[in-house]
Amino acid sequence: MRVRALCFVVVSCLLATGQVQAQEEEGRPTAVLQGGPEVGRRAPDFTLLWAGRDGVGSAESPYQLWRDRGKTVVIAFYPRDFTSGCTAEMRTFTDQYDTLFGDEVVVVGISADSLSTHSRFAASLGLPFRLLSDPGQKVARKYGSSDNSGFPKRTVYVVGPDGRVTYRNLKFNALDPSHYAELGTAVKAARGG
Questions:
Q1: CB atoms within 10 A of CB 31
Q2: Which entry of 48, 49, 86, 159 is annotated as an active-site residue?
Q3: Fewest C-beta atoms under 10 Å: which of 1, 13, 104, 122?
Q4: Domains of the chain
Q5: Which residues, at least 6 apart from 107, have a Cβ–Cβ distance to it below 8 Å?
Q6: Could you give the 3-state DSSP secondary structure of residue 91?
């Protein structure tokens, strides 16, 4: 009984601070963490299969975040391939790649789409970075980017060379130039520039 009361108090406090969102699921109240890792916290590690403009990557060599320690990494969650907002975001990342990121930065896009869809999408835009497939939104949940719609929310993280989050935007606007400028500034700061 004490554990249940303690859980109620913790969830109530989190609801009050906006760190969780209450939802009804099959008549039972649940709480879903919304925040993801905060700036200064270690970025949760993950391993996902990927595709790029040249095709689907090998299952034997999935993308693993820990392998990019020592580099600056941009993680961009987005809802779906071939939609207008996601196309605008990925096209802007591609068109402004040198300005926003540069050669020393690893960029990955993550959505719930399949690898074959990712491959077609990346080829259609000539993306110079990989798209990772997170069909169950397991990684999206770790980063506060999952959504009940079945598609991730549009969020962007910058992970510094030490593996810690240096920037996060939980409501990245694919059509707002100021969000790209803010991201570019965050990437430069993470690179030590």
A1: 16
A2: 86
A3: 1
A4: 1-34 (no CATH), 38-190 (3.40.30.10)
A5: 73, 74, 76, 93, 97, 101, 128, 129
A6: helix
Q: Which residue has the tokens 């719609």?
A: 149
Share of the chain above pLDDT 70, in %: 82
Active site includes 86? yes
Q: What is the mean pLDDT of residues 104-109?
A: 96
DSSP state of 17: H
Instruction: Give the containing element (helix H, strand E) for 84.
Output: helix 84-95
Contact criterion met (CB below 8 Å) for 168 and 156: yes
The model's pLDDT over 138-183, given as tens digits with 9 standing for 90+, comes to 999 999 999 888 899 999 999 999 999 999 999 999 999 999 999 9
List, for residues 15-35, the tens digit of each pLDDT value: 333 444 444 444 544 444 457
